[in-house]
């Protein structure tokens, strides 16, 4: 699903743009994936796992998502680089098509500038326009208080815990926290 260009301003006044990914974003996306993975334990990949992301892989992924009636992706461009992404996936089966799953990630330098709020607002809008979606779901890794604050602000509420879902390199086990928003 294609989402057109949505220009906006960061809290510090710099211009930014949300839109569906394009081939021209591939080099920036590869850099963003590696950088975001290195900045926090709250991303579901380590930097060394980013080798699987190639220009060809990203091109295929962009084409798949942009052509899918059940998925959408936003990239956030600021300062002429990819600084964040957000995805939404809608369930297709008759019994679960009222549900969608959302995810978001930003590089640290752009935390707290309003990008997450804007991305979630757009994903919620897309879900509502679909008509049959009545709830959005997400999960986050325990301890990610910044993400939790954003999700609370956007109207998500906790509904469960997936115990010991994440194992860090040092052996630390972390829970995944599950949240949903009724539309």
The arrangement of helices and strands along the chain is EEHHEEEHEHEE
Q: Span between N and C termini?
A: 20 Å
Helix content: 25-40%
Q: How many beta-strand runs?
A: 8
Question: From the helix content, strand content and strand pairing, which structural class follows?
Answer: alpha+beta
Query: What's the CATH first level?
Result: Alpha Beta
Descriptors:
alpha+beta; 183 residues; Aminopeptidase; eight-stranded mixed beta sheet
Question: How would you describe this protein?
Answer:
The chain has 183 residues and is α+β, with helices and mostly antiparallel strands. It has one domain: Aminopeptidase, CATH 3.40.630.30. Helices cover 28% and strands 34% of the residues. It has four helices and eight strands. The chain has helices at residues 26-39, 55-67, 115-130, 145-153, and strands at 6-9, 15-19, 71-78, 81-90, 99-106, 135-141, 157-167, 173-182. The chain has an eight-stranded mixed beta sheet, with helices on both faces. A hairpin with a 2-residue loop joins β3 and β4. The longest helix has 16 residues, at 115-130. The chain starts with 5 loop residues before the first strand and ends with a strand.
In short:
The chain has 183 residues and is of the alpha+beta class. It has helices at residues 26-39, 55-67, 115-130, 145-153, and strands spanning 6-9, 15-19, 71-78, 81-90, 99-106, 135-141, 157-167, 173-182.
Please write out the topology.
Blueprint lengths: L5 E4 L5 E5 L6 H14 L15 H13 L3 E8 L2 E10 L8 E8 L8 H16 L4 E7 L3 H9 L3 E11 L5 E10 L1
Parallel strand pairs: 5-6
Antiparallel strand pairs: 1-2, 2-3, 3-4, 4-5, 6-8, 7-8
């Amino acid at each position: 699903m294609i989402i057109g260009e949505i220009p906006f301003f960061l809290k510090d006044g710099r211009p930014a743009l949300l839109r569906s990914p394009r081939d021209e974003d591939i080099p920036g996306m590869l850099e963003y994936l590696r950088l975001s993975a290195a900045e926090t334990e709250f991303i579901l990949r380590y930097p060394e796992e980013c080798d699987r992301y190639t220009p060809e892989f990203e091109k295929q992924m962009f084409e798949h998502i942009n052509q899918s009636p059940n998925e959408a992706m936003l990239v956030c461009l600021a300062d002429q680089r990819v600084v964040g992404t957000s995805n939404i996936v809608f369930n297709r089966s008759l019994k679960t098509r009222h549900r969608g799953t959302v995810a978001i990630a930003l590089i640290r330098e752009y935390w707290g500038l309003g990008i997450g709020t804007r991305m979630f607002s757009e994903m919620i809008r897309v879900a509502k326009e679909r008509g049959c979606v009545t709830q959005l779901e997400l999960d986050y890794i325990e301890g990610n208080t910044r993400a939790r604050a954003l999700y609370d602000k956007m109207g998500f509420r906790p509904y469960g815990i997936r115990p010991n879902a994440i194992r860090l390199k040092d052996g630390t086990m972390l829970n995944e926290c599950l949240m949903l928003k009724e539309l």
